[in-house]
Specification:
globular, 7-stranded mixed sheet, alpha/beta, Spore Coat Polysaccharide Biosynthesis Protein SpsA, Chain A, about 40% helix
Length: about 240
Amino acid sequence: MSLVDKKILVIVPAFNECGNIGRTVEEIRRVGLGVDILVIDDGSADQTAREACQAGGMVVSLPFNLGIGAAVQTGFQYAQQHHYDIAVQIDGDGQHDAGYLDKLIGPVLGDEADMVVGSRFLDNAVGFQSSFSRRLGIGFFVHLINGLTGVKISDPTSGFRAYNKRMIALFSDYYPYDFPEPEAVVVAQQACARIMEVAVVMRPRQAGNSSIRYFKTLYYMTKVTLAILLHMIRQRRKRR
């Protein structure tokens, strides 16, 4: 089945991304893949929702800030309810280059993978690779996830991802709440998903500040590690 036969939803979680979100939506539209674009306005206090709508995106506005996990899960639930074949997650801050959408979707379209992660660390990529402290955290999760699950993934915190119908159903039912990306890899692995990465180039955010800039790396690593371990314990109990 070709790309034009697939119903594809691009999910864009956004919190106070006025100045970024309009450019992000417009860039996705310019790629020309005929995808639907859903911006989840996570209780923004600025004009994020209006800017996204003016740029041509559909908008769901949450009543208050619920966090990245709840925003992304809202997108999965929309995709599930409206029978999308593929969902793509892309950040609203301009860091993800929509020009890689086709490459990201390709393995899902070809039934090579259930979940595809865009990695900034493959093929000696030269784009933005985050701060030193964030790279330390990424390296920690690379080894943690590999040690616990056997999954080899170079960029477990990347929020640039594509999913097939089975993953849409899985994550519409449960998606990690806080700092969700590393745990989502484990959730998918525990569901026997085929996970692969493709090389992408990322950019610094175009405007504003990261919503997680105040969190210490140690706190982030500890909280996500505990969430991953608790999820694996729950899954093992269910199998007994």
